[in-house]
Amino acid sequence: MDRPRYFTPAEVAAHNTVADLWVSFLGKVCDLTPLMSRYKGDALLLPIMESAGQDISCWFDPQTKDVRAETGSHSDPQRPPEDPDQT
Description:
The termini are far apart. It is globular, with a radius of gyration of 14 Å. 18% of the residues lie in helices and 14% in strands. The chain is an alpha+beta fold.
């Protein structure tokens, strides 16, 4: 039986580019590099790119593990942020 692998915040922080993107949340570490490759250039990935190598636990409800309605700088995770040049 394989033992669980543990990562330090510094190890997660080293994976902070689109070509090598990890995040931690709710005690887990997730390699999102395949997601970034698959949907390259999609504006909906901007919050994830901005959080590369960081803990994103604040995006989730700790009891239900659901995504919170407001995840920080973008109030709607399904809508890309507005372009300030178009306002």
